[in-house]
Structure formats: structure tokens, C-alpha cells
Design brief:
single chain; alpha+beta; Arc Repressor Mutant, subunit A; Dna Ligase, domain 1; SH3 type barrels; 3 domains; three-stranded mixed sheet; 9 helices; 11 strands
Length: 276
């Protein structure tokens, strides 16, 4: 891992530990003392591995203990770095394998982000929460809304299904990322699903003329559809446009905002293509 990134991870890890000690020093989500809970879970892993004939469990137990104590959303590279901080040298590949094993045995939950990153978090029996992930900065927020769970139960029932489990991930933009978009940013830095308005152009005059030939000018609304081979695919009116790195970096845009809930939370929509 990059030394600078390692220092950042270590600092975040230490801050998290101080936060947990200050806010939830004694209890796990089910009310059991944290140390007792960690011991119970590691003993459970040891029993499961012994049941399938695996005797060399020291490495796996150490990784599970670390994983539970950190108690946060982790990618395999980040987790590998945390293990190295504790003096345990292990490759990212082996770390990823251990996290996959924890998931299959019910000790972890696995989630995917929009950009195909994979992160893991401890799985606590009897508890459930869903996630909101910022497409801009990657910030992950947990939430537990009983009315959402009830709605999912109703949907399953209406479709004649028995609900077994679900994973709900909402992708959006946090307050900080939305504020930056008010100030304007290159189209190249937008995310899939955003509806934006062209406010300016940068680059040489010939590039601006090429953009004008595509029908792009101040006030043009674009919906970001995706990315292909380095080009950003946008919807302009009824036309799909593929814009390479140079062109997408030259188009300065601002998020299209409609409605609002309070002074800090603005409601954004991804259905503005009907108005374009």
C-alpha cells in the first residue's frame, strides 16, 4: 500500500477506535459486551472451520477478530493495510479470500458500489440496515427504516413471494458533493444518473466550435448515461452523445436542482430527460 495512504488509514483507524471507545465502549448491537461478542464470534468461526476439517485456523481467527473490532465498511486493500498495521503481513488477494469466507459463513455482508468496488462489513445476527452511498465521494451512510422494510414485505406479498432477505443501496450525492456542483465542474467529473446544465466551456476555440456543432451551448441540459471506452455517454434532448476525455473536460456544468426538503437537503431527480 502507498505509504501516504497507509498513514491516512492508520489515522482514520485510530480516530474510529477513539470514537467507539467514547460512544459505544461496552456493547455490540445485540447488547452483549463487545469483548464477549468478539470472543463468541471467533469461537464460532473456529467451530465451523473445524467442522469442515480445517485445523490451521490461527490466521483466519486473527483476521476475523480484527475485522470485528474495526467494525466499519472495508475494501480488501484497506483491510490488508489495517492487518499490516497490526504486524500481520498478508496479500490483498488472501485478504479478499478471507472476507469472502467470512461472508459465506455469515460473519460479514458484501456490498457493491456503482464503480464496481466491493466492500464488507460485519454481519450482526438479528439486525438489519440499508445503505446510502455518495456517487461523488464514496461516503456510506447506514439507515434502518421500518416503513421501508414493511414496504418490501408488502411488495413480496403482492407478487406472491415469501421475502427472505434484501439489500437496498441508494446512490446519490451528499451535501458536500452537491455544494461543489453548484459551483460548476467539468462534465468528466459527473456521475451516472446526474442531470446537469451546461454553463461554460474551457479549452481552445476550435474545441468550443466542435461542441457547438454537437448542439451544446449554455443552458443545454444533459443526462449522464454511462461511460464506454473512456468516453462519457450523455443524453441531450433525444440524442445520445459520446464525448471523449478532452471534450468532457472542456464542458463545465452545474447540477439541475428541482424542489427541496429544508435548507440543507435538496431534492434531485434523474427523470429530467422527459423535459429535455
Amino acid at each position: 500500500m502507498n505509504p501516504a495512504l497507509t498513514r491516512v488509514v492508520r489515522r482514520l483507524h485510530n480516530q474510529l477506535g477513539r470514537y467507539l471507545d467514547r460512544r459505544v465502549p461496552a456493547l455490540s448491537p445485540d447488547g452483549v459486551a463487545r469483548d464477549s461478542y468478539h470472543a463468541r464470534e471467533t469461537q464460532g468461526l473456529a467451530s465451523l472451520l473445524a467442522g469442515v476439517g480445517q485445523q490451521d485456523t490461527v490466521e483466519a481467527l486473527f483476521m476475523l477478530e480484527t475485522f470485528l473490532k474495526v467494525d466499519m465498511h472495508l475494501t480488501a486493500p484497506i483491510f490488508s493495510g489495517l492487518l499490516k498495521d497490526r504486524g500481520f503481513e498478508i496479500s490483498v488477494e488472501k485478504t479478499a479470500g478471507a472476507l469472502e469466507m467470512f461472508t459465506s459463513l455469515g460473519f460479514a455482508e458484501k456490498h457493491h458500489t456503482e464503480d464496481d468496488r466491493v466492500f464488507y462489513e460485519p454481519s450482526y445476527p438479528g439486525s438489519h440496515h440499508d445503505h446510502i452511498i455518495c456517487s461523488g465521494c464514496g461516503r456510506t451512510t447506514e439507515f434502518n427504516k421500518p416503513d421501508v422494510d414493511q414496504l418490501i414485505e408488502k411488495i413480496a406479498c403482492d407478487e406472491d413471494y415469501v421475502h427472505l432477505q434484501h439489500k437496498l443501496i441508494i446512490y446519490g450525492l451528499c451535501h458536500s458533493c452537491r455544494r461543489r456542483r453548484h459551483e460548476g465542474l467539468p462534465l468528466a467529473e459527473t456521475k451516472v444518473g446526474e442531470v446537469v446544465m451546461v454553463v461554460d466551456f474551457s479549452g481552445p476555440p476550435e474545441l468550443t466550435r466542435r461542441l457547438a456543432d454537437l448542439g451544446l451551448r449554455g443552458g443545454t441540459r444533459l443526462k449522464v448515461l454511462g461511460e464506454q471506452s473512456g468516453s462519457i455517454i450523455v443524453l441531450s434532448g433525444c440524442c445520445r452523445l459520446a464525448m471523449g476525455p478532452e471534450m468532457s473536460a472542456a464542458v463545465i456544468v452545474r447540477s439541475v436542482e428541482r424542489g427541496g426538503h429544508g435548507s440543507r437537503c435538496k431534492k434531485y431527480t434523474q427523470s429530467a430527460s422527459a423535459e429535455q
